[in-house]
Each structure stands twice: as structure tokens, then as C-alpha cells.
Amino acid sequence: MNAKRNAKGAITAITHPNATAEMALQYRDIIITAARTVDKGVVDIEENQSWERLKIHTVPLVRYMGKGTEGLQNMREEFEAENEGIAIPTQVRWLANPRTIRERRQNGEIAVSSVVLVVKGSRVAQSLVKKGIKAVGVWYRVET
Known about the structure:
Distance between the termini: 32 Å
Oligomer: single chain
Number of domains: 2
Helix content: 25-40%
């Protein structure tokens, strides 16, 4: 199977013309391995549905600027734990280059930054844009 990222950012793979999504999901581990050749942040697969990309603002660097993706993985887990009905199918990413963010933080220029994440379902995304998203008891502003 050859996995690729399409123009809209979704990872796609071609299967046999008669294969259904249900059949493909029987090979979940193989498909995830193939998808990770395109994006190491892939954590799960499921049948087609709407995914919405959101920006989260004023994220404290002292808490989430960990080594590698450790801090962002913690953020993802906290968002999913504290916000009912939210599922984040890919890794949370910094909106700007992490190296630049780290340098600006060390120089005392910034203490917060923004991240981008993807949530399953347009209703969930609309709700988060309206009310915000919570992690460790703190509410963050969300925009599409």
C-alpha cells in the first residue's frame, strides 16, 4: 500500500476497487505503519468523517515546550481527558517553528504560543470555537 498526503492534508491510500473501509480496518496496524511513513503523528485510523483543524492560543511554553513532542503529547492527552466528546486523531503541533519558539522563549521575548490540532467532527469543532478548550483547569481560546 502506498500512503500519500492529498492537497487538503488528509493521508490517503489506494486499495482494491471492491474493498470497503470495514475490510481495510481489519488491517489497521499495517495501514497505520504505512500512514506513519507520511506523518509520524498518526495515532489511529477509522472510517471517513469530517476532521477540523483548529488553532489554540496562549499555550504556556513552560508547561508544553518539552523535548521532542513530549509536551505536546501531554497537551493532547489533557485536552481529550478534560473536554467531553473530543477526539484528536493526530499529534498537536506548534503553529510556528519549534526552534524559533524555543529561542524566543530563552531570550525572554515570549512565554506563550499557539498550537494547531485536528478534532473529529465539525460539531465538536464549532463547540470548541464557541466556548474554548480546557486543559489542567485552564480555558484556552480556539479559532478555525
